[in-house]
């Protein structure tokens, strides 16, 4: 397999790496760049575990080759907190709601939810369920996840940018 | 002395209220999990690391006539190709019954002369890149000669059935009985029969089986996603090295649910790392995981239930057949739990239960949340509903007349020794449903049902279970807990911190818990059977109390008060005198005092569960330490045009004795319900002649956000569990009642009782058609 040089822009930093043209973006992020928050769950784009934001939109990193995303802005969970903050408010909401159990699906879940709340300032519980349908969780039963997203949307409105 | 003590302002003296236990601190693993920084089985990389793959059988039952590995070996980048002849000791013997009568059948690590299920490991590859390892798998040429297979456990019981193993097709045949069931049945006013069937279910943890192995200083270390680090001894046997040469470290699991209780990647990683003397990573892809990992046992359950006209149970005759698949794994123990719990939480003076684990050429079945005791809930609760209907009683009345209470004798002859709060859980769950919903369309019907269940926590008593912990108060006042527990994501490690904090007063942020390492932790047993809060929680509680006793002697002398009046809280030990002049010593100072006086601030403690014996001939004896009881109530809407069942409302209530962390308790119940609803309505690892129909998440469906209503939880705290501070285990219990509650609600909606899981739209339409054709008996059972 021929290797090629790609520049990946991840969480505001540019990384240069040599990858095979068949190198999945998921493997490039997890193994080549050492990002433990981007995880393999199914490799078929169904479970949402490897969700990243690509120019702000949630996508499955297992369905893209690394060479396809040059010049795009990739955000993973660890890229969410502001430079001077330990955590992003959505992480605080998940923590306080007890919305993680094994934690494996949690990064993808939060990124998908974040994109929803960016678009929809006041999502209903049904809106949240509809948006998260592509993020599987086997531990929580989803109730606390929906609670956490609802709370995050509420806090975000409370911060004054929308209401 | 004065310099080392200081005044405390407020004095909540001598209170027995908990300050840490019973709260829901969002600490320990929760923090790393929302930060995305927890390192799971695949998140480990070492210099020179190779990538391992398993070559698996594509045949369910065949003789291996040849294995040609030459093409795979020649592929550049391939470092090792191993087959059965490379395995020093090619056997895994489970002996899950603990020597109480199962066949001794060894499972090969790599198949030698024949394969017995689709997905059985045949060869191993290690290569420098994962893509090369995957390509090499396709280059291993295995020649097979088909053998007649057997795929239905009932057919496997026929005299002429092909043998999966020469020793026979019946792995174990449990009998449990008391009284004279035949005579009592003959004398009964009413006899209800029922046949219930459940399916293969995939665990579907989001983190696939994964880990890394390496060799260092002559010791093989495996860092893997596993529930049981004690498999190190099996690995030593397989490699034919002594047990001190194998170390297993368990990463925090991305879910397990029983599926990481048997070994998964461990033997393959061990063999590859040992042979190559290089680090090796292995991650099963999702398709491989669904194809080859163990499943929940499908049960065929046949019930005959005899009662008096007033509804009092007289007799149960129960026959259970479980499809063990091709190898023993933990089937003997699963079928024991099914047998022991087959009559559920109801008094039955005369009972005979037979429960058999039967080999087939299907994928092996083994541990899965609920472990045999969950399948039978569908059986016994359906029988109770049918009995009520036959006698014109309500489902509540029939249960009130038969429900067990503390002190009652169960079928194994044991007496229940803790509170049974089933009525309280039922009242709460039913009240939670609120006003009945109205149907959303002309073809839609709303129905309601409930089901109760009892689930053991702790290992079967004859295994004489024990767990150890090592607690150390450091000279800066921080506390170390070292315990061999593994963490499934249910807070196994975090709950130990809460208990230790409660006893010793060290703040949670100053406690570290080191878990899951055979080299550095005292053994705690694996995390399964809802046993870790019960076992390791008790070990921490009593170990911390012992440690506190030795620290208290020093503190009491310093403070001039009796040791039993000291209060341990907020990183301090202080007096609790009524004068308000409380004085205290910081734990750091106390630890230094102890050091100066030669008093140890460390305690290695082993907690032992009650032991006992079970007599398999008599079918009587000691079975489980205790049970967690609960009731679930459901409201569903059935679309009679499409057969789709929508769960509108769902409420679950369990008595957990004493909550250690209420948010985590709720999480266990809500998550258990999700798995129970998937089991009830959609999940089916269907096999056709041993070949799985679905091996992708795209076609093995588990509940999504859109399938799940909000799960309402009510917790009862009877204060009578056998766990630490009277807690009961809550890991497995919530998965049990779901299918029975849903089936009962569907019966209420459409008038026909489902008796086969999952209750898919197709099956609902079949039930409706049967009803239209008049093939349904008055009580909703099929004729």
Helix content of chain B: 25-40%
CATH homologous superfamily annotation of the largest domain in chain A: Beta-grasp domain
Indicate the CATH class of the largest domain in chain B: Alpha Beta
Query: What name is given to the CATH topology of the largest domain in chain B?
Result: Aldehyde Oxidoreductase, domain 4
Pfam family, one (chain A): Fer2
InterPro entries (chain A): 2Fe-2S-bd, 2Fe-2S-bd_dom_sf, 2Fe-2S_ferredoxin-like_sf, 2Fe-2S_ferredoxin-type, 2Fe2S_fd_BS, Beta-grasp_dom_sf, Diverse_Oxidoreductases
Protein name (chain A): Purine hydroxylase delta subunit apoprotein
Domain 2Fe-2S ferredoxin-type (chain A): 4-80
Description:
Chain B: It comes from Tamaricihabitans halophyticus. Chain B: One of its GO terms (molecular function) is iron ion binding. Chain B: This is CO/xanthine dehydrogenase Mo-binding subunit. Chain B: Residues 35-148 form the Aldehyde oxidase/xanthine dehydrogenase a/b hammerhead domain. The complex is a heterodimer of chains A (163) and B (783). With 163 residues, chain A is α+β, with helices and mostly antiparallel strands. Chain A has helices at residues 25-32, 89-97, 106-119, 125-131, 143-158, and strands spanning 3-10, 13-20, 51-54, 57-60, 73-75. Chain A has two domains: 3-79, Beta-grasp domain (Ubiquitin-like (UB roll), Roll); 89-158, [2Fe-2S]-binding domain (DNA polymerase, domain 1). Chain A contains five helices and five strands, in the order E-E-H-E-E-E-H-H-H-H. Chain A has a five-stranded mixed beta sheet, with helices on both faces. The longest helix of chain A has 16 residues, at 143-158. The termini of chain A are far apart. Chain B has three domains: 2-38 and 466-608, Aldehyde oxidase/xanthine dehydrogenase, molybdopterin binding domain (Aldehyde Oxidoreductase, domain 4, 2-Layer Sandwich), CATH 3.30.365; 50-147 and 203-292, Aldehyde oxidase/xanthine dehydrogenase, a/b hammerhead (Aldehyde Oxidoreductase, domain 3, Alpha-Beta Complex), CATH 3.90.1170; 299-460 and 616-772, Aldehyde oxidase/xanthine dehydrogenase, molybdopterin binding domain (Aldehyde Oxidoreductase, domain 4, 2-Layer Sandwich). Chain B is 26% helix and 25% strand. Chain B has a seven-stranded mixed beta sheet with strand order 4-6-2-13-10-11-12, with helices on both faces. Chain B has a five-stranded mixed beta sheet with strand order 8-16-15-14-9. Chain B has a four-stranded antiparallel beta sheet with strand order 1-23-22-21. Classes of the chains: A alpha+beta (163), B alpha+beta (783).
